[in-house]
Amino acid sequence: MDLRFSAQDEDFRRELRAWLDANLPAEMREPAFWAGKGSDESFELRREWEARKAAAGFAGIQWPTEYGGRGGTPTMKAIYDEEMARAAAPSTVNPLGLAFLAPTVMAIGTDAQKRDIIRPLLHCETIWCQGFSEPGAGSDLAAISMRAEPQGEEYLLNGQKIWTTNALHGDKIFTMARTGTPDGGKRHAGISMLLVDMHQLGVEARPLKQMTGASEFGEVFFTDATCPKTDVLGGEGNGWATAMLLLSFERGSSAIAQYTEFRRMWDEVVGVAARMDRDGRPAVEDPVLRQELAAALIELECLKYHSWHVLTQTSNGRDLGFEASMTKIMWSETFRRVSDVYEKVVGTAFAVPKPRPDLSLEELTTTAMWSRSCTIWGGSQQVQRTVVAERVLGLPR
Amino acid sequence: MQFQLTDEQRALQDAVRSYLRDRFGPAQVRELYENPGGDGVPAPLWKALGEQGWLAVLVPEEHDGVGLGLLDAAVLAREFGAGTVPGPWLGTVLVAEAVRLAGSPEQQAELLPGLAAGRTKGAVALLRPGSSPSPAAAPATASAGTLSGRLDLVEYPAVADVLVVAAGSDAGTGLYLVDPRGTGVTVTSVDSLDRTVRLGTVTLDGAPAGRLGHSGAATVQELLDRAAVLVANDLVGIARKALTDTVDYDRTRVQFGKPVGSFQAVQHALADLHIAITFAEHAATYAAHAADVDAPDRRLAASVAKAKAADAADAATSAMIQFHGGIGYTWEHHTHFSFKRCKRLQAAYGDAAQHREQIARLTVDAAAVAT
Ligand SMILES: Cc1cc2nc3c(=O)[nH]c(=O)nc-3n(C[C@H](O)[C@H](O)[C@H](O)COP(=O)(O)OP(=O)(O)OC[C@H]3O[C@@H](n4cnc5c(N)ncnc54)[C@H](O)[C@@H]3O)c2cc1C
Q1: pLDDT (tens digit, 9 = 90+) per residue, B267-284?
Q2: Could you tell me how many CB contacts below 8 A there are between chain A and chain B?
Q3: What count of other Cβ atoms lies within 10 Å of the Cβ of residue A144?
Q4: Which of A107, A94, A105 is nearest to A46 (CA)?
Q5: Which residues contact A367 (CB under 8 A, 6 or more apart)?
Q6: What is the C-alpha separation between B31 and A283, in angstroms, rounded?
Q7: A382 CA distance to ligand 1 middle (Å)
Q8: Confidence band, pLDDT 50/70/90 cuts, at residue A353
Q9: How far is the CA of B127 from the CAs of B145, B166, B356, in angstroms?
Q10: By the 8 A CB rule, do A191 and A176 touch?
Q11: What's the A243 CA to ligand 1 centre distance in angstroms?
């Protein structure tokens, strides 16, 4: 057991911190700054921030240098994630492209795809959407019905996607469509992964309003939209295998960033609890709430230890495989745990963004609501549990 | 950074595992269950603990020990929990820790070699059962070189050669050495639901006692924390074994024409357990390491580990019975060995609620003051 980082890793952390101190304005670290911005303005600001990071060499930490990355180690990536979370840096505008599409293109893309896709993605010149879910195909991804008919050198796309993150800001979408005739029992056959331009007449994105009031996701309608045949990723009819490879780039190693973020939320919740009244005393003195705050902190500490475990595995070159499903359950449930305590601490004040002139709960309440989505997207909690039971514990199907 | 056991620690783990697999299994545990009148210390097992250095693990080399750390002891505790291992290992190791942490050079030279070799068996009484683990809950009072008080639920007092007792006095709380067979000491055995342990009440009535070096409240707390960490690791061993056995059983038990382990209600419950136990394993491992390197958060880590392990083992042993169905409720099946050991240990050295309150004192109160 040795929890210290190497001298090079510590150098990297120092360099990154110094750069953040010099380049991330203090106001951009404040929730209030973002609360005052409209969604388009805040998107553009975050996009600029992302480009600035890329220009300074603080993007694609683990990507090979030939793709403009830093060629770093899993440890450097974990340090990066942790420092970004600690500095309360804006979250990425291109999460699906950076985490999922880019590594897939590096692994199985054509030379032209590697050349055209990766660099603009890294600099956030192209924002990518993930078009997997359909109204009739959520957890059951193989039930998709969007069609792509071959026509000369192109496909003609017709169908609908839903819950598409960044639908309104997306430039391109990697999406799954049926290119072959559906073949009775073989639902996974005849699917292709297409890389589609969203700035064309046949593609229409409409916002969907979330329970937070924001519209980070939307619906995307395809009506005789086109996609050149050269923009298939992983080969025609191989869409299922491509999707599985893409989804295997789960972000287990960012558990340290999740810990850092949720821990900050927990600290804020304690601060609120110290100022909320409960039976004439500060809520923080209520024995039941103390138990719940401590129970949430236990999960947080365990999540931190787990992130060390994940980092140890990845930096020793071991593949996490289906354990990534476990990590997803761990962080999303820990997040829910902290959010649940917050809801109990504020009680009736959950209904009011600003219960007192000296107390604004807007940000925490939005975050607590956001926690509700994390146990759904990326494979719902129930689906992940089945994966853990069958693939990690080895229970029969 | 490497958050994992070293190769040496894994070798130690393998050695205990294979010893238990070959020499001490459910049949030997059952003997203890069918013979509650015995001393509860299988002689070959105790001999092996001494010979293999598993009692000497924390004793410094200059006193004939192996000189390893709490994480190495935790590796042993975890395997002993998984194997429902009986005997005064914990008491002996804790007495040695007390002597190592606070004993005078003379006390160390006199006691440690015997404890390390297994010639001397140890027992401890550090707090009143049911109390939060704190020096304020010392079970005895000290006065003029003697101790008085009633020590309940002491492990193996009848076979112990040396007893370490936390006692309060005008000069504060400290640790004392008592001869369990000396004057003013009465040992009464009591039945234990968990028959892998022998429990008793020790009544001290002006029993002669020597203070352990310069021990004070801080040493008592340190020992309580270390005890909690070792028990947390035992609980983690119990929990992991309970889950593994349940998965094995449900993989092959067929109902409705399918293995019951293929039903989602079973799968999801066991997946949740696996996650809770994995968290508890990380926490129990870190807490032991934190004690070894004197990390600033080591008290917090001990409480996190004890609370998480107690809850995980509680859930795992309950699920073990449930997901074995009727067979899980029979005396003949081994589910109740782990269940009863878990019940005993989940409350020992502070239960989950007490440790959560401790965590709240260490963190919530500090954070609330800061805002
Ligand atoms: C904030 C957010 C962002 C998203 N972004 C994207 C995106 O960018 N691109 C994209 O393609 N999709 C996106 N999604 C969609 C997401 O992947 C799906 O919502 C998710 O896969 C669940 O599908 P569903 O909503 O159709 O629920 P359903 O599949 O209808 O399931 C409903 C509920 O039933 C339960 N359930 C379903 N199947 C099973 C089963 N086999 N066993 C046990 N229980 C089951 C689960 O509890 C599930 O939550 C996003 C979703 C959210 C909430």
Answers
A1: 999 999 999 999 999 999
A2: 150
A3: 23
A4: A94
A5: A265, A339
A6: 52
A7: 10
A8: confident
A9: 20, 7, 18
A10: yes
A11: 16
| CB A292, CB A344: distance < 8 Å | yes
Q: Give A338→chain B minimum CA distance, Å.
A: 13
Residue of A nearest to B10 (CA): A1
B-chain residues within 8 Å CB-CB of A312?
1-4
**Per-residue confidence (pLDDT) for residue A39, from 0 to 100:** 86
Q: CB A5 to CB B1 under 8 A?
A: yes
* A305–B307 CB contact, under 8 Å: no
Catalytic choice (A82, A216, A219, A250):
A250
The residue with greater pLDDT, B126 or A34, is B126
Query: How do beta strands A191-197 and B258-259 pair?
Result: unpaired
Distance B172 CA to ligand 1 centre (A): 60
Contacts of B272 in chain A (CB under 8 A): 385
B104 CA → ligand 1 middle, Å: 64
Mean predicted lDDT score pLDDT of chain A = 94
The torsion of the CA quartet A335, A338, A340, A343, rounded to 10 degrees, works out to: -120
Nearest CA in chain B to A290: B360
Cβ-Cβ contacts under 8 Å, B298 against chain A: none
Q: Name the residue among B195, B191, B224 with its Cα closest to residue B29.
A: B195
Question: Taking 60 as the threshold, does the pLDDT of residue A77 lie above it?
Answer: yes
Q: What share of chain B is helix, strand, coil (3-state, %, to 5)?
A: 55, 15, 30
Measured distance CA(A303)–CA(A331) in Å, rounded: 7
Q: Can you tell me the distance from the alpha carbon of A141 to that of A120, in angstroms, rounded to the nearest whole number?
A: 29
Nearest CA, atom 12, ligand 1? A133
A301 tagged catalytic? no
Q: At what angle do helices B70-82 and B217-252 cross, to 10 degrees?
A: 40
User: Residue A182: is its pLDDT beyond 70?
Assistant: no
pLDDT in tens, B153-206: 999 999 999 999 999 999 899 999 999 999 999 999 999 999 999 999 999 999
Closest ligand 1 atom, residue A133 Cα: 11
The 10s digit of each residue's pLDDT in B222-252 is: 999 999 999 999 999 999 999 999 999 999 9
Please report, to the nearest 10 degrees, the dihedral formed by the alpha carbons of residues B72, A315, A9, A121 taken in order: -150
Residue A281 and residue B253: Cα distance in Å, rounded?
54
- pLDDT reported for residue A138: 96
For A125-155, the pLDDT digits (tens) are 999 999 999 999 999 999 999 999 999 999 9
Q: Whose CA is nearest to atom 1 of ligand 1?
A: A373
CA distance B270 to B268: 5
CA-CA distance, B257 to A37, in Å (whole number)? Answer: 59
* Tokens encoding A87: 């500095």
Token pair of A182 as six digits? 């559906």
Q: Tell me what the pLDDT averaged over chain B comes to.
A: 97
Query: What's at B282, amino acid-wise?
Result: H
3-state class percentages of chain A: helix first, strand second, coil last, to nearest 5: 55, 15, 30
- CB contact (8 A) between residue A284 and residue B368: yes
pLDDT digits over A204-234, tens only?
Answer: 999 999 999 889 999 999 999 999 999 999 9
Per-residue b or e along A193-206, where b marks 16 or more CB atoms closer than 10 Å to that residue's CB: bbbbbbeeebbbbe
Residue B263: what pLDDT?
98
Q: How far is B110 from chain A (nearest CA, A)?
A: 33
Residues 6 or more apart whose Cβ sits within 8 Å of residue B361: none
Ligand 1, CB cutoff 6 Å, lining residues: A 96, 130-133, 138-139, 163-165, 217, 373, 376-377, 379-380, 382-383, 386
